[in-house]
C-alpha cells in the first residue's frame, strides 16, 4: 500500500517570509519639548525690557529737550543783554543835545525833535492800553504842575498819528504826542530794545540838552518822578 502524500502548508512560511522581508519599523521620534510657553515667556521678558528701554529713552529725550530749552533761553538772555548794552552805547546820554530828527505829531504834521526844550517826554509801548493809560493820565493830571515850572509834556510811541489823536481826544490829554513808527528817536533815547519800547521818561532842559533819563519806569510813578526831578534842577 503506497504511503499517503503529506501536504505541507506553505502559507505560514510565506507569511513569515513576508514579515521578515518587511523593513523593521523605526522607533517613534521623541516629541520636541513644547516651545510655545518658553517663547511666550521669552517674549514677555523682551516686551518688558523694550518697555523699560522706551521709558528710559523718553526720559532721556525729555531731559535733552529741557537742556536745549534752557540753553536757548540763556542764549536769548545773553543776546537781549548784548542788544541792551549795544543800544545803551549808542544812546544819548545826560548832557547830550537832541539831534534833528523829523517825525509826525498826532495831527500828522512834521515835528523836529531838536526843537524840544524845557520838556519832559514820556515813552510808552502802545496807546490806549491799561499801563499806558495809567501813565498818560497821571501826566495829564499833573500838567498844571509841569506848566508852573515852565515845562511842556510830550508823549512818544510807535503809534500812528490817527491812533494818538483818537487816544488824546478820548482822554482829554492837554499835551502833544510824537509818533516814531521805526523807533528812531525812541532807540536814540535808549528805550528801544528788541523791537519793543521801554516805559520811560526823559527830561530836556531849556538849552535842548538831556538833564535826566529814566528807563523802565512804572506807569503810576513816571509822572511824579519826572516832576520831582525837574524841581531839583
Describe this structure in words.
The chain is of the alpha+beta class. 47% of the residues lie in helices and 16% in strands. The strands form two sheets. A seven-stranded mixed beta sheet has the order 2-1-5-4-3-8-9. The longest helix has 55 residues, at 36-90.
Fraction in helix: 40-55%
The coarse silhouette is: elongated
Number of strands: 9
Strand order of the largest sheet: 2-1-5-4-3-8-9
Total number of helices: 7
Q: Which sequence of SSEs, written as H and E, runs from N to C?
A: HHEEEHHEHEHEEEEH
Indicate the proportion of strand residues: 15-25%
Mean pLDDT: 83
Helix and strand layout, with pairings?
Blueprint: H1 11-21, H2 36-90, E1 102-105, E2 110-112, E3 119-123, H3 130-141, H4 143-148, E4 152-157, H5 161-171, E5 176-179, H6 184-188, E6 192-193, E7 196-197, E8 200-204, E9 210-215, H7 222-231
Parallel strand pairs: 3-4, 4-5
Antiparallel strand pairs: 1-2, 1-5, 3-8, 6-7, 8-9
Short description:
This protein is α+β, with helices and mostly antiparallel strands.
Amino acid at each position: 500500500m503506497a504511503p499517503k502524500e503529506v501536504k505541507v502548508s506553505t502559507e505560514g512560511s510565506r507569511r513569515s517570509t513576508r514579515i521578515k522581508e518587511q523593513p523593521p519599523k523605526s522607533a517613534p521620534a521623541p516629541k520636541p519639548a513644547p516651545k510655545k510657553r518658553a517663547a511666550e515667556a521669552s517674549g514677555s521678558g523682551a516686551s518688558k525690557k523694550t518697555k523699560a528701554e522706551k521709558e528710559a529713552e523718553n526720559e532721556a529725550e525729555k531731559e535733552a529737550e529741557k537742556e536745549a530749552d534752557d540753553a536757548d533761553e540763556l542764549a536769548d538772555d545773553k543776546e537781549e543783554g548784548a542788544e541792551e548794552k549795544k543800544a545803551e552805547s549808542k544812546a544819548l546820554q545826560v548832557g547830550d543835545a537832541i539831534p534833528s530828527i523829523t517825525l509826525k505829531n498826532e495831527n500828522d504834521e512834521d515835528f523836529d525833535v531838536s526843537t524840544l526844550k524845557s520838556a519832559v517826554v514820556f515813552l510808552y509801548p502802545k496807546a490806549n492800553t491799561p499801563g499806558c493809560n495809567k501813565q498818560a493820565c497821571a501826566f495829564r493830571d499833573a500838567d498844571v504842575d509841569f506848566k508852573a515850572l515852565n515845562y511842556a509834556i510830550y508823549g512818544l510811541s510807535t503809534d500812528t498819528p490817527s491812533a494818538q489823536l483818537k487816544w488824546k481826544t478820548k482822554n482829554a490829554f492837554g499835551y502833544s504826542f510824537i509818533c516814531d513808527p521805526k523807533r528812531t528817536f525812541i532807540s536814540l533815547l535808549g528805550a528801544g530794545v528788541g523791537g519793543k519800547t521801554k516805559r520811560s521818561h526823559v527830561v530836556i532842559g531849556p538849552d535842548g540838552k538831556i538833564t535826566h533819563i529814566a528807563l523802565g519806569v512804572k506807569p503810576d510813578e513816571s509822572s511824579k518822578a519826572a516832576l520831582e526831578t525837574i524841581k531839583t534842577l
